[in-house]
Amino acid sequence: MYKLMLLFTIAMLSAWSLHAQHVLSGKVRNSQTGETVPAVSVKARNTPYGDYTNDQGNFRFTLRAPLPVTLVFSSVGYATKEVTVSSAGAITVSLDPSSILGTEVVVSASRNIQRKIESPVTIERIDNKDVINSPQPSYYSMLQGLKGVDITTSSLTFTTITTRGFNTSGNTNFTQVVDGMDNQAPGLNFPLGAAIGLTELDVDNLELLSGASSALYGSRGLNGTLVMTGKDPFKYQGVSFQITQGVNHVRKGRGNDPMGASPYYDWTLRWGQKVNDRLAFKINAQYTRAKDWLAADTSNTNGPGSKYTDPNYNGVNSYGSKTSVDINPFLEAIKAMDPSTAPIVDPLLANPANYVSRTGYPEYGYLSNDAKMLKFNAEVRYNIKPGLQAIVSGTYGGGTAVYSNDTRYALDGFKLAQYRAELRAEHWFVRAYTTRENSGNTIIASPTAQLLNEAWKPSYDGNTGDGWYPQYTVGLITALAGGQSLTDAHLSARAVADQGRPLAGSDHFNRLRDSISGIPTSKGGTLFLDRSKLYNAEFQYNFTRFVQFAEVIAGLNYRMYNLDSKGTLFPDHDGAIHVAEYSAFAHFSKKLIHNKLKLGAAFRLDKNTLFEKPRTTSRLSAVLETMKEHFLRFSYQNAYSFPSNIQSLQSTLVDYNSYASGGSARLLYGEYQFDKYQPYTLESVNKYRQTEDASVLEKFEPKDIKPQSVDAFELGYSALVAKCVLIDVLGYYSTWKNFIGYVNVAHTPGSTDVEDFKDRSKYIAYNIAFNGAQKVNTYGYAASVSVDLSRNFLAKVNFSSDFLKNRNNSQINNFNTPNWKVNMEFGNTGLGKKQLFSFNTSLRYRPSYFYSIGFASGTIDANVVLDAQVSYKLPKVKSRIKLGGTNLTNKYYYTGFGSPGIGGVYYITYAYNVF
């Protein structure tokens, strides 16, 4: 009996020991400065238990396992440290700072954690410490300094990025993923930059995949994918805020900038809180406001000459002057009524046509340049059990922005919201989210100005015979009769016809503009009523623990577009249009030759309900470690994109120059609709397109638009030399099929006479998306070097080059990039013994290059841009003060033709509890 009781007691004690709970706590410090270190991972080895240090450097968690245990402490920028704990209680651990070169890990390259240097494809990474040390006041602007990246800045609050050359505002072939959610606008299908997504203080890391990435991320990944990850509230805790006050438009008149010095504000708040071992939440808010950059290119798109010398002047950023009419009929009418004018009129009629444009408005005073952006985010995470977490989140973004396409679009009061629910385990996740879009009050610059001109004075009133053009013609004859030169007479005639013209910014002007932009396009105005939605559900599972021969990850995805524009963008007059996409993918990888060679393969199947056939894509890759920390990589990627919803369902048809006898200059909207939405076919009307030689017209033969695809090969080499020099070199070659570009075509209602297509008064101009017949090739190479100079000094330089051959000259193809570009960076993250001072500088050089967009084309001048910042830490109050500037020389530069000139921004930032 005694022995039995003893055995029972031992068993009970053993069971208690197996289920014992120990509270482990402590503090982590920097071994050099003595500062506490937040966001350090503290993990009990071989258990699911652990914690992150909070903003005070403290950690605390309950261990449901017997002691002793080994705690593993790890954080970016510090050497990993292991500490054995034999009893509960508080401990203090010091971590040694170390170089981050070669240690960065990425997820997006293969949807699995791996070192960046071992990635099978080119990938660039920015983490939260890079954001803190950047001279850019916006983390999104930092992307332009990465290898191979092109940007178009259409507005202070709207920047579009891309890789591999095809660069334009609103790029539908670039994918942007924020916390697992595709943050494209559901109707327009392109990401809205930083307008919605992570706030400045909530950035954990950004990973940029260059080039094709459809095999893992689906349609629209031809020009790259940006994966953005927010901060985990379990890891990043405490209240943080950052206040940036600055100034831009510093020197009036520079870069055609009519503004004077204007304030720049950016205020950001983050609160992350771990309530207990199971529950954590975060709340983010950011508000940005400034006077926007202005597009002020006065170049004449109708040929040589200026607004003072060319009566048919149409400036790149002059809105309303696209209305252009041949005044010869009016000259003939004057001569018929008064034959005595023949000596003046006949020399003018000797010209086959005398085109005159209406007077346009510059962007300043016409479009609001009050740039605003407001973002909110809230997230709750709950650990159901160790290794299983539930996440719910909501994100809202809105404000004003301007972007360039076939004209300039001023988005006033646009809103975009995303809501997510997710279950995440060690080997799988299931995620569902929705995106909701509200286009707000959008002003379409050129057509709105044309209608505004018609509103204050019609070009021609068929009932009265009066109008702007009759008055202009009378003024011209009168001035010539008075002895003025032809150039001066045209200026006098314009002054006569412009009598009563409302000044930009006046009450009369604003009333007319707002009334026109408040009428939907479907009813003759210029208002978009886009209220489209996107619904997405996806599942991913890592089968590696069940499969012996390889690492296997597979997933499913379902997406539904609910297109709702009330007939203003889509042929949805009778109700919302539903477009569904289904997809499945699998990724396999296998290590061979003593783990020196890693092979990978990814396959994906996608089906879009607008297209009959599904699309398959693949990626094959190999990474060979030729010697320690030297990796040679090769990849083949096949990527594709379904046409955007607008391209699939319609081509928006805009008439900028139409004029018919007895009618008036007018703006028309219409659409040619495909498939079941098609009331008539393109073949049922006569259309021609204009070739490079403006005098030659070629018939346009429309066909159903198809998905486009690219086959891309890449060879790269990465190496970490002497633990302080990181090298990456690559070359790529791509072949595009069914490339989607645009063409300007002319239509003459009721006429098939080719001569009518040469008379601007008789045709309507449309812009049509179509597939080019020939294959298009792009190729290029790039290299980057990062050097750890010790004592927290780091230098970086990268070079990249992109080329296009077999250009399809019948298309506007948006290959807008210089043949080569260079970025350099030099900085220090902590000077001196206490490392209180830090600084960073960056320099970007772009040679001149040709840029083509829907409404204008021209050369972007070469530019050199220098940014810099210096910071000082106040450890006792957990604060940092930063003094910095972008484009320090304030020499205005351009990233897109017809887009604004970008001057300097000079600022001071106070940041609290930012780490």
UniProtKB/TrEMBL annotation:
Name the Pfam families on file: CarbopepD_reg_2 (PF13715), Plug (PF07715)
Annotated signal sequence range: 1-20
Identify the main location.
membrane
Keywords per UniProt: Cell outer membrane, Membrane, Signal, Transmembrane, Transmembrane beta strand, Transport
Q: What is this protein called?
A: Carboxypeptidase-like regulatory domain-containing protein
The cellular location(s) given in this protein's UniProt record come to: Cell outer membrane
Q: Please give the InterPro entries that the UniProt record associates with this protein.
A: Beta-barrel_TonB_sf, CarboxyPept-like_regulatory, Plug_dom, Plug_dom_sf, TonB-dep_rcpt-like
How does the entry describe its membrane topology? Multi-pass membrane protein
What are the residue boundaries of the TonB-dependent receptor plug domain, all occurrences included? 116-225
Residue ranges that the Swiss-Prot or TrEMBL entry lists as coiled coil: none
| Repeat in keyword set | no
Q: What's the superkingdom here?
A: Bacteria
What PANTHER family would the database entry show?
A: HEMOGLOBIN AND HEMOGLOBIN-HAPTOGLOBIN-BINDING PROTEIN 1-RELATED, TONB-DEPENDENT OUTER MEMBRANE RECEPTOR
| Signal as UniProt keyword | yes
